[in-house]
Amino acid sequence: MTSSTSIRLNSAKPTSFPTLSPKTRRTLSLHDLLSSNTPSTTSTQRSKNVHHRRQCGIVDCHKYALTGGFCIRHGGGKRCNFIGCQTVAQSGGRCKAHGGGSKCKVFGCGSVARRKGFCMMHGGRQQCKIDGCLKCAHGGGFCISHGGGKRCSSIACSKSAQAGGFCYSHGGGKRCAAPECFQAARKGGLCIRHRKVAALI
């Protein structure tokens, strides 16, 4: 006597998928059903697409490159259109010393705006912490005369440091734009003597 055994295949209940979108109430396609079970890769893609700015074209310089492929210190970016000035241009095509950049909010004041939209004379910069001193504060909350700001890297020199970490006397700061002149550059990219000469031309 043979006993018959009945085997029921796929006894588990079939997986049911929603056929309507809960938001739009439209019929879901096969692509919608498959993508709903696939983990989102949006965050991963965003992390891979993070914008990396170019670095300066000078070797060992890690600053960001501007127009021309170099940082500001190495000649990148737009320059002031005032004759002989190599300072970085602000709005209006000129540097702050030659009238570029935003102006002070005080009516009738044409000075360059600093902190909170005001010039230095109208409260646009923090004043020195020393009582009675009206000079602008630098590093540490004091003016240069009272010890504020960075000092020259040369031994036993207490003068204010310029670009490069040294004072003007020890080679810091920009040099005059006039040919074969190595004096410290002041306003307009020229030294005091060549600035006077340029004013007479």
TrEMBL record:
Q: Where in the numbering of this chain does the WRKY19-like zinc finger domain appear?
A: 54-76, 127-148, 149-172, 173-194
Region Disordered: list its residue ranges: 1-23
Q: Name one Pfam family in it.
A: Zf_WRKY19
Give the domain of life. Eukaryota
What InterPro entries does the database record attribute to this sequence?
A: Znf_WRKY19 (IPR056866)
Ranges of biased composition (kind: Polar residues): 1-22
Report what the protein is called.
WRKY19-like zinc finger domain-containing protein
